[in-house]
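Supplementary notes (optional reading)

For those who missed the lab, this is the record we used. Protein: Bifunctional aspartokinase/homoserine dehydrogenase. Length: 797 residues.
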Amino acid sequence: MARCHLHKFGGSSLADADCYRRVAHILLTHGHSDDLVVVSAAGKTTNFLYKLLSLRDSNQLWQEELQVLISYQQGLIEQLLSNEQARDLRERLTTDKAQLISLLSLDSRNDYQISHVVSFGERWSARLMAALLRESGVAASHVDACSILVADEAAVPQIRVQESRAKVQALLAAHPNERLVITGFICANERGDTLLLGRNGSDFSASLIASLADIERVTIWTDVEGVFNADPNKINDAKLLKSMSLAEADRLARLGSPVLHSRTLQPLFNTEVSLAVRSSYASHTDFTLIAPHSSSASAPVVTNLNAVVLFGFKIAGDVASLLEQLGEAGLTPLAHWVSAHQRLELAYTAENQKQVQKLLDAQAEALGIKDLQINTELGLVALVSADAEHYRRSFARLLSRDAKPLFSGDLSLVTLVPQSQVNLLTQKVHRRCAGPRKRIGVLLLGVGNIGEAWVKLFKSVSPSLNQELEAQVELVGLVTSSKALIKSTGVDLQSWQQEFDNEATPWQYEHLFEQLEQLNCDELIALDISASASLTLQYPEFFERGIHMVSANKLAGSGPLPFYRELKEQLGYRRLFWRYNASCGAGLPIQHALNDLRNSGDSVEAVGGIFSGTLCWLFEKYDTSKPFSELVIEARGLGITEPDPRDDLSGRDMQRKLLILAREIGLEIELEDIELRSLVPAHLADIPLEQFLARIGELDDELLQQYGAAAEQNKVLRYVASLDNSGAVLKAEVGLQWIDASHPYANLTPGDNVFVIRSAFYQGNPLIIRGPGAGREVTAAAVQSDLTQICRDLLQE
């Protein structure tokens, strides 16, 4: 049966005797009797061997340093092994010391001899680990990789795959049910001369041997728990990835992962071998598994390189041809940009600079390369995911004018920025794209007709909204005048009414605010879809607790000026948002228009219109064919008026809306500054509703007389709000007016609202906004629009 596991341990995992014991424990508790093990040189042994060569080449004393290294190895042997096992390794170490002295005493050393000197670290580690396992009572042997990995010589040795596979398979057949501890980092040419596999060679050895041995999994044991969605040394809330695809891991490795190396991953392509990255210091913790095949994308990973080299030049030849040549030479750029006038820019790590420049110089004449410039002042920030394109918009919004446009390709988004900006941009991209999604809780205050319509609308748009915002916007509370339901886990939009009926409890403001404090939300937004004056008085407390507000309720925006000023001042003390477009004109963008005019440098001189769908309906229908009072009773029966029609006929609602608009254009006025001419005579204003309905006919004579007088001048009756600030004195009033038959107020669809804006830019031809100004659906839509805008503002960096 095929062996199923290969373990690789790096130098940091073998730094001292305790580390060796920890590794032995891992192998005995996390493995099988026939596992393969690949080891690096212990601690800094390889660096020490290179130091010896450097001392010798510069004719400095090296003997004392060699003794320090040998003593280090002897110390490991003495601490880990019993007398018999230790004696054998001490004898071998004495032989190795003599061989090192012989090699270092030569006047010069060829490449094979240098490689042989450097390879002693891996040989010592393999021998010692195999002996320690035998000391623990299990069968184990050490293997010199030069006996199984055959390579052709090149800048980086090229493994002869078929020949090496045969040697590996023969080795496994000769050692069934035995752990084999194999040296990493080294291989041999066909003559048996030692070759080095280069940087990160031991990891490459592990994945290569796993693929040749048809191993199911290779585990790289290191000093970190696995692959994080950002460098945990730089990003405090970086999260460990449980899994990722091989393609994603390879792209991440090419873009500067501190854990993964692209060369390590190459032998795993077109195999069934999975790769795990685990911590040898915390073997019980979660880890990252890199699967050879994966149909789903991992969470996005943000990585960076503090310094890159950017080649920029004009090219007359084919760009695709040059990129192909670079790829064939193993010099695929990290990213590239083609700008106007056939200028090409290529980003590389500094270690590839000489090779790339050499290739470009060689191809300069053939491809018409000229004006070559090299910039070494930039760093790289990238996001890696199979779903990288999903994050393009969020990433792009974070880029300053100093950044290169996003390069998209190979499961990644890449930009270059000045080196001083790399860390800050990395943090921003992680927070925006890879960090935990912000959870925004929504509290619905008012569960009547409009509230029900909003929940229905929110249910339909929330999936796309969450995807667009890359956040989690959830309904966490429903509140009526008598009961409240607050749920930290979120209210089920499918069964919210049943949940409310079954679980809602009586409430008071103090207890409600305590419950809101306990919610696990990054932000809270309250939607006031009520007409409650007592709720309006609680706005300062909502703001004090950092809760944002959307108001369809007019009472706050049209409240006493000191109270209104207090609310606006609170918004300036912290990052708070209050939007109230639904309080005037329902879904019509009247406040958006006024703000846009002010932002454009325009000056609003006058605002007017018919702000009541009810009064629009009544006066569009009124033609004296039936008394005005009969129309009112008819409208009440159709649900067009409030239950008490005087709430509409008084004009108070339009007066409040005009005040909201006046304050929106910067006028600090009170409700009383707007003259109100009610359609309800004073003697009918305060009597009981039943008496008013019985005497409603008393309205008819006055309106019939007004209608006739207006008609004589080819005018019509309309109930209008108007504000004019163009003169020395502000004029603001709400009341019945005679209107020319050609005026925008004169020909509306019954039930519509119309707003007419005159400004410095819109004089003779004013800006007109008209459409449905009431109704549960359009008001709910206005509330949703304000909610969405606050969410966008909150998520803006």
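If you only remember one thing from this example: The radius of gyration is 39 Å.
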